Automatic annotation (TrEMBL):
<dbReference type="InterPro" id="IPR038728">
    <property type="entry name" value="YkvI-like"/>
</dbReference>
<keyword id="KW-0472">Membrane</keyword>
<feature type="transmembrane region" description="Helical">
    <location>
        <begin position="186"/>
        <end position="202"/>
    </location>
</feature>
<feature type="transmembrane region" description="Helical">
    <location>
        <begin position="297"/>
        <end position="315"/>
    </location>
</feature>
<keyword id="KW-0812">Transmembrane</keyword>
<feature type="transmembrane region" description="Helical">
    <location>
        <begin position="119"/>
        <end position="138"/>
    </location>
</feature>
<feature type="transmembrane region" description="Helical">
    <location>
        <begin position="145"/>
        <end position="166"/>
    </location>
</feature>
<feature type="transmembrane region" description="Helical">
    <location>
        <begin position="321"/>
        <end position="342"/>
    </location>
</feature>
<feature type="transmembrane region" description="Helical">
    <location>
        <begin position="86"/>
        <end position="113"/>
    </location>
</feature>
<protein>
    <recommendedName>
        <fullName>Membrane protein YkvI</fullName>
    </recommendedName>
</protein>
<feature type="transmembrane region" description="Helical">
    <location>
        <begin position="43"/>
        <end position="65"/>
    </location>
</feature>
<feature type="transmembrane region" description="Helical">
    <location>
        <begin position="260"/>
        <end position="285"/>
    </location>
</feature>
<keyword id="KW-1133">Transmembrane helix</keyword>
<feature type="transmembrane region" description="Helical">
    <location>
        <begin position="214"/>
        <end position="234"/>
    </location>
</feature>
Length: 352
């Protein structure tokens, strides 16, 4: 088995692309899960990234060793056949519904950019862009992330570094710290993104040639995510008094509210939605492909056409209804993943 650093980089970028959705890129997730808890929130980002790291290692290792093709096969390894029957449908519904959310999110981004009449145009462009990548299968997914994610990372870094240079002082002294323990929020954030990671990483086994690629991909992706999140969080803590005024905190970091910055940030948010949408659709397509023997691109096309009308419910309405629904489910799946190595050790001891 030959180790490939480039393969680790590609898988790492795919992990980052799956996790950096519009919530992360806009700063809203960073603030709600971390920054709102005050100065110690940096430590909670590190805790969340550690949980992410081990969950990613476990998922990639299962996919590599068991040669899994979709998330249901990984679920069977971590939960057993009985629970898998239930959670298989739950994850499928999650991928379907979040794909609708991403399509609606594209429409919302176009409304922000071009006006109220462009919602449907934004939805259509998202569907076409996702379908084009589907034509190239897993290579298309990984190549897309290699092209887009470094650019998104660079833009977010530029915005945060530029803001910190302009505002080098201490935190806003008017800020009040939360008296609630912050570590549960760190675990919740890891759980919040776990189903999308499960859906994508369960298909990656065929792309891995050496176990070191797994560790390097996980480490690289967590350093990227954690580094950006800490820098982003540090910036947002300085403008806590403005958080209630901005639905998209990223705009609060840009004093020059010029058309250039509006267009640039809108593009960042759209591509963040795009990378998450592709990851969810890939997980969906690979699962459905085990049920019907159609070409994957055809499954993806039909899925997008069926889901598109549901996007008319609106981005905000869909998020408010669907995301709390998955909270407990995501925590259970995350716990099952993290406990998997211990259950394997127990089974090995019993066999001896």
């Amino acid at each position: 088995m030959r180790f490939s650093l480039w393969q680790s980089f590609k898988i790492g970028m795919t992990i980052v692309g799956t996790t950096i959705g519009a919530g992360f890129a806009s700063g809203r997730e960073i603030w709600e899960f971390f920054g709102s808890y005050g100065e110690t929130s940096h430590y909670n980002i590190i805790l969340s990234m550690c949980v992410f790291f081990f969950a990613t290692i476990i998922l990639l290792t299962i996919s590599w060793q068991k040669k899994t093709n979709h998330y249901s096969e990984v679920l069977e390894q971590i939960m057993g056949p009985y629970l898998t029957r239930l959670f298989d449908w739950i994850v499928l519904f999650f991928l379907l519904s979040t794909t609708v959310v991403m399509i609606a999110g594209s429409g919302a981004a176009f409304v922000q950019w071009k006006g109220d009449d462009s919602f449907i145009l934004g939805c259509i462009i998202m569907m076409i862009a996702v379908f084009v990548v589907l034509l190239f299968d897993l290579k298309g997914l990984m190549s897309m992330n290699i092209l887009i994610i470094p650019l998104l990372i660079i833009i977010l870094l530029i915005v945060c570094v530029w803001f910190l240079q302009v505002h080098p002082g201490d935190y806003d002294m008017a800020r009040t710290n939360s008296h609630l323990p912050a570590w549960p929020s760190a675990i919740s954030y890891a759980a919040f993104n776990i189903i999308s990671l499960l859906a994508v990483l369960s298909t990656m086994g065929s792309q891995i040639q050496h176990h070191l690629e797994i560790w390097l991909a996980a480490a690289f992706s967590m350093v990227c995510l954690g580094g950006i999140a800490i820098l982003y969080n540090y910036s947002l803590l300085k403008i806590e008094h403005l958080m209630s005024q901005y639905e998209i905190p990223l705009f609060a970091l840009v004093e020059d509210y010029s058309p250039f910055w509006v267009s640039l940030i809108t593009c960042v948010l759209w591509f963040a939605i795009y990378t998450t949408a592709i990851s969810n659709v890939y997980g969906l397509v690979f699962r459905l492909n085990s049920l019907v023997s159609w070409p994957r691109w055809m499954i993806g096309l039909i899925s997008l056409l069926v889901l598109a009308p549901l996007s008319q419910f609106g981005f905000t309405n869909l998020v408010q209804f669907l995301y709390p629904l998955y909270g407990v489910i995501n925590l259970f799946i995350l716990a099952s993943i993290l406990l998997y190595p211990f259950s394997q050790s127990h089974h090995s001891t019993q066999k001896k």
